[in-house]
Amino acid sequence: MHDRMPGRPSAHAALAFYDDQHPPAGDFLADVLEGFSRTPKQLAPVYFYDATGSAIFDEITDLPEYYVTRTELDILDRIGPELSGLAGPGAVVIEPGSGSSVKIRKLLDALSEPAAYVGLDISGTHLEAACQEIAADYPALQVGAICADFTQGLDLSQLQLESGRRIIFFPGSTIGNFEPEGARQLLAGFRDALRPGDAVLIGADRVKNTDTLVAAYDDAQGVTARFNLNLVDRINRELDGTIDPSGLSHKAIWNAEKARIEMHLVADHAQRFHVAGREFELREGESIHTENSHKFTPESFTSLAESVGFDVLHSWSDAADLFSLHWLEPAAKA
Ligand SMILES: C[S@@+](CC[C@H](N)C(=O)[O-])C[C@H]1O[C@@H](n2cnc3c(N)ncnc32)[C@H](O)[C@@H]1O
Question: Is the CB of 122 under 6 A from ligand 1?
Answer without folding.
Answer: yes
